[in-house]
Amino acid sequence: MNSRKNPSPKKRPVNLDLSSMQFPLPSLVSISHRVTGIILFVGLIFLLWAFDTSLSSPHGFEAVQDVLSGNALAKLVCWGLLSALGYHLVAGVRHLLMDAGYGETLEGGKRGAQIAVVCGAVIVILAGVWVW
Amino acid sequence: MSTLQVSMYRYNPETDDAPYMQEFQVDTQGRDLMVLNVIQMLKEQDSTLAYRRSCREGVCGSDGMNMNGKNGLSCVTALSEVVKNNRLVLRPLPGLPVVRDLVVDMGVFYKQYERIQPYLQNDQSTPSIERLQSPEERDKLDGLYECILCACCSTSCPSFWWNPDKFVGPAGLLQAYRFLADSRDTATTERLSGLDDPFSVFRCRGIMNCVNVCPKGLNPTRAIGKIRDMLLSNAT
């Protein structure tokens, strides 16, 4: 009688293929704010370790100084973390402003996201100039 | 170039183990049809296709779906608004269980709507005439009462995708604020205490996907901000 293959409502599929969806700029700014937060959380472990080493002895200070001035990878990590910090700061301030009621219209939200991206890009470039 | 390539999400629980995409070709004769018109033409090609529709003019809110990655009502969305490279991808509203093809189970969405008690509550004795409002008090309800519960907003919201049972979602919160803002409603304190937890309101991260898709041009993000302000000033 009943030839149903999949009668249970619990087995119903859900359309959540993120690659099929459009994400407007404000949502991308928000998710990248969170991603940079995680990057900072993990990256700070290495920075704190380097900080601790540099304070442990004059020898340690020179070792960290050498790595940061000579090693390209160390510079890249440093630049990456500075960029993440700068972007996270800008996007965070945007969230604070929105919580205070600024830029809560569709247009305002898009404008705020654009400003955050531009400011973030400027900080990324400045951080690169400073590191190298 | 009047042949439109349509890719349609198909799932029949009686015959399919998993959903798949079916390709269709539709001759639009160069007209800028509404997406719902195209779906009706697909239904003529394949009568097993299932979708919801009723008024076909953006009032009933039955035909919410994901068109080329963006939620909207297919009856009031013209092809020229969504079609790119002569291609249209139709998928059911994201995050809700699919009953069949484009038909989703809206149960969890309605449950959140029910939770915010979407009706006027007043503990004063019933007056002999209507409960009066000043024009200014009535103005506060504009942009709130127009919601048709099509679920386009809540199903575009990542916070609702991951916590549909705990986060009320933009549609429910817009209605929650509609009654919080109503001068005739006296249950403000009770309503706020029902929302005062880390999930119901505060899962909103203000990414405004809801505002971006609302077919009625409403702004749930602003309403959620207002509720947050009320929760903070009534802090317990």
Question: Could you explain the architecture of this structure?
Answer:
- The complex is a heterodimer of chains A (about 130) and B (about 240).
- Chain A has four helices and no strands.
- In chain A, helix 1 runs antiparallel to helix 2, helix 1 packs across helix 3 and helix 3 packs antiparallel against helix 4.
- Chain A has a single domain, classed as 3 helical TM bundles of succinate and fumarate reductases, CATH 1.20.1300.
- Helices cover about 75% and strands about 0% of the residues of chain A.
- In chain B, about 30% of the residues lie in helices and about 15% in strands.
- Chain B is built from nine helices and seven strands, in the order ββαββαβββααααααα.
- Chain B is elongated.
- The termini of chain B are far apart.
- Chains A and B meet through helix 1 and helix 3 of A and helix 8 and helix 9 of B.
- Chain A: Its cofactor is heme.
Overall structural class of chain B, as computed from helix and strand content, comes to alpha+beta
Largest interface (C-beta under 8 Å): A-B, 29 and 40 residues
Helix content range of chain A = over 70%
Regarding quaternary structure, what we see is: heterodimer
Element-by-element helix/strand order of chain B = EEHEEHEEEHHHHHHH
For the record, the count of structural domains of chain B works out to 2
Count of extended strands of chain A: 0
Strand percentage of chain B lies at: 5-15%
Residue-averaged pLDDT of chain B, rounded?
A: 96
CATH superfamily of the largest domain in chain B: Alpha-helical ferredoxin
**CATH-derived topology of the largest domain in chain B:** Fumarate Reductase Iron-sulfur Protein, Chain B, domain 2
**Which descriptor suits the 3D outline of chain A?**
extended
Query: What percentage of residues of chain B falls in helices of 4 or more residues?
Result: 25-40%
Side by side, the strands of the main sheet of chain B go 2-1-5-3-4
- Architecture per CATH nomenclature, i.e. the level-2 architecture of chain A: Up-down Bundle
**Uncertain residue ranges of chain A:** none
Radius of gyration of chain B: 20 Å
Q: How far is the N terminus from the C terminus of chain B?
A: 63 Å
Give the radius of gyration of chain A: 22 Å
